[in-house]
Amino acid sequence: MLFQAAAQGPQFFYLAPWIVFLPVIGLLINIIIGGRLPEKVVGVIGSTAVGLAFVVSVLLAISLAGHHEAVIVPLAQWIKVGNLDIPWAFQVDTLSVTMMLVVSGVGTLIHIYSIGYMHEDVRHNGDPKRFRRFFVFMNLFIAAMMILVGSDNYMMLFVGWEGVGLCSYLLIGFWYEKGKDGIGNSLAAKKAFVVNRIGDFGFLLAAFTIFWAFGTFNFTQVFEKAPAMAAVAPVILLFITLFMLLGVTGKSAQIPLYVWLPDAMAGPTPVSALIHAATMVTAGVYLIVRSAPLYNLTPQSQFVVTLVGSLTALFAATIAVGQFDIKKVLAYSTISQLGFMVAAAGIGAYYAAMFHLIAHAFFKGLLFLSSGSVIQGIERGQHHVEHDPRLAKTLKGNSEHLDPQDMRNMGGLRTRMKTTFWVYLIGSLALAGVFPFAGFWSKDEILVSEMAYKPILYVILALAAFLTAFYMARQVMMVFFGEPRTLAAEHSQESPKVMTIPLIILAVLSAFGGLINLPKLTIFGSIQEITTKWLEHAVEKGYLPEFTLWIGLTSTAVALLAIALGYWLYGRRYQEMLKLPTAKRPEDPIIAFIGPVFTALKNKWWVDELYWLIIVDPYVAVSKWLADVVDLRFWHDWFHDIVLVGGFNLLTRVLSVQIDLGIIDGIANGLGWLAQRLAAAMRRLQTGFVRNYALAVFFGLVIILGYLILR
Amino acid sequence: MVPITYYVSLSAILFAIGAIGVLVRRNAIVIFMSVELMLNSANLAFVAFARYYAALNGQIFVFFVMAVAAAEVAVGLALIVAIFHSKQSINVDDLDSLKG
């Protein structure tokens, strides 16, 4: 064990809530006084907050090394209604701490990188004040992610789940006024949010069913009661696990809900690295691994999960081959790699899934950050060209149309951005699964597991691995090799140290990441299966892959073959092709071999269009119908204007004319009329002749006296 | 001795004459005189009964009546003068301002 030395050492479990508090403190400082601080200080505060969270994670890991069992650290009461009792409590076990280490570790490096990247990005996009906002959002994301991985129940997990979704939305739309037609980035953010809502709906249904079936959200209690439930009503578990899978497909970008992730590349590149490659999108994998006891009881669900993962892995890998945007390639690659993880988690190879998750966080974080470095290198080159009067002339006004993310505008960066090139190469080799980089070991475990489960799925994943190596070779060739294809690429410059040093650290991790879970072979002595042994304390044993030589050799052969093919197509043929006149030149050398299929790949198999056709368009049509016909015409024009307003008018007319004017006024006027008539009758008595009055008095007297006398 | 009946009868006749005078005459002064006649008929009855019952109450009452009548005449004649000033007439039928 790596942490054996610390066994029985000090225990820091009480520090667990600080993994959330520290990023929150960081963002609060930046919100309150960040506006008055210089940019660097803001960046350092944000990075330090995450760095301290990493320190806390390490302390928790050290504590766990001496005390393997899960420790619950309660923080506060949250909801207590009847027998519903949801606390804010942190479950510190080897699984959650592994996630914490990845999130805060990779997160810290990306924060440091962002200090350099955002310094240029905010200036390039013309709003330096947003530098602070970026770090506030990033710290908020780390806090939400820590809630997600640290929780001890499904509801607190859901809070983090939604929190990271919100941060993802905020950061995709970071330059919300930019993008296609000035609204592209906002649309991408909206798409991510809406698609995630569909997944969240599945997660919520699963969570509610869990409470309905088990009467609790607490992981430990649910898992204790699960076997009894499986014996009585397995369909409930099937329901829970399948709807949980829907949540996973949303958050971890699997078929059918993966469509938001490529669009999410609208966010700044560090965001793509942190949220859309290394951490948030792995939340789905974490959820499956966390819920392992439920999935172990439902083989049908496991099959669906692994099928979804495998198909996603292959499907996304094919699309990545047809993309020209450097970040889109990586986005589809991420979807594909998440497919690998989900496939592994589905068949119960939880340790393999987690291993690949960690390794992927290293090399995909590295690749995204490097691509950010490449993009800014091109932007710097473009800036240089535009401000050099001699070179600017040659641009002939085309400068503004240059897309710094289009790989066709690159080439030859190998000699111009040396550090970026080397780390990119390491990241690509790790992703392609070349021995002995991290990706080889982690992917190999997944392939072995799939082979043992269903050979057909192994074939699918091996094909995906082939395509992975191929599109990475294509990318590296197009970006770094050959001659520069634009002036901007020719004059591109290396990024500052604050960006390259995190890259180098991640490159080292990508290269040697395999060490954390070397296969069970005697030659590796005591350093074999570190992650597996570590996670055994938190996750039920599912399938434990054994190293199989022929699969390892096949993987390596497949990867090398794909790289060779990529080199031949894009290192050689692409360069020859460039000599042709523009009109005759095909878009991509592979068109000569796969023809129209490339168009399909380039257009992402028209899945977005398909979704528009079968979901969005009918939905919009229904919305319009509801708005126009039901709401405006029926509800507003007819019901409100005619029924309500007309009815009201009629009622008021009846009340005012018939009731008020007729009856009320009639009574009042009648009384007046009566009084008048009475008075008119009475006035006759008032003759004005005194003698008449005297006579009346006389008669009155006579009558009274007569009465008194005669009674 | 003259029986009480005669006195009361005379008093009644005088009262009736006064009342008729008040009701049928138009001249304000004549009406006044008729009122005086009625008052004096009452005085006569008072005196007659005082004598009949050998009590002084009635006779003392007559003095009150005469004093009040004198005051009334003073006010009444002043009113008539004032009316004559404004209307150039003391015909009570002309005083019909309160006619409804």
Q: What is the number of helices of chain A? A: 28
Annotated CATH architecture of chain B: Orthogonal Bundle
Task: Kindly estimate the percentage of residues of chain B that lie in beta strands according to DSSP.
Answer: under 5%
Poorly predicted regions of chain B are none
Q: Work out the largest interface and the residue count of each chain.
A: A-B, 13 and 13 residues
- Tally of contiguous helical segments of chain B: 3
CATH-derived topology of chain B? Helix Hairpins
Distance between the termini of chain A: 133 Å
Distance between the termini of chain B: 55 Å
Number of strands of chain A: 2
Topology record:
The complex is a heterodimer of chains A (711) and B (100).
Chain A: H1 18-32, H2 39-66, E1 71-81, E2 84-92, H3 94-124, H4 130-150, H5 154-172, H6 184-214, H7 219-232, H8 234-251, H9 260-263, H10 269-278, H11 283-290, H12 292-296, H13 299-321, H14 326-346, H15 350-386, H16 389-395, H17 413-416, H18 418-432, H19 438-453, H20 455-480, H21 487-490, H22 497-512, H23 530-535, H24 549-578, H25 591-594, H26 596-602, H27 607-683, H28 690-710
Antiparallel strand pairs in A: 1-2
Helix pairs in contact in A: 1-2, 1-4, 2-3, 2-4, 3-4, 3-10, 3-15, 3-22, 4-5, 5-6, 5-10, 6-8, 7-8, 8-11, 8-13, 10-15, 11-14, 11-15, 13-14, 13-20, 13-26, 14-15, 14-19, 14-20, 15-18, 15-19, 15-22, 18-20, 18-22, 19-20, 19-24, 20-24
Chain B: H1 4-24, H2 28-53, H3 57-87
Helix pairs in contact in B: 1-2, 2-3
Task: Give a quick rundown of the structure.
With 711 residues, chain A is mainly alpha-helical. Helix content of chain A is 73%, strand content 3%.
Would you give an account of this structure?
- The complex is a heterodimer of chains A (711) and B (100).
- Chain A has 711 residues and is mainly α.
- Chain A has 28 helices and two strands.
- Chain A folds into three domains: 1-209 and 261-282, no CATH class; 298-385 and 402-602, no CATH class; 616-710.
- Chain A has a two-stranded antiparallel sheet.
- Chain B has 100 residues and is mainly alpha-helical.
- Chain B has one domain: Helix Hairpins.
- Helices cover 78% and strands 0% of the residues of chain B.
- Chain B has three helices and no strands.
- The model of chain B has no long low-confidence stretch (mean pLDDT 91).
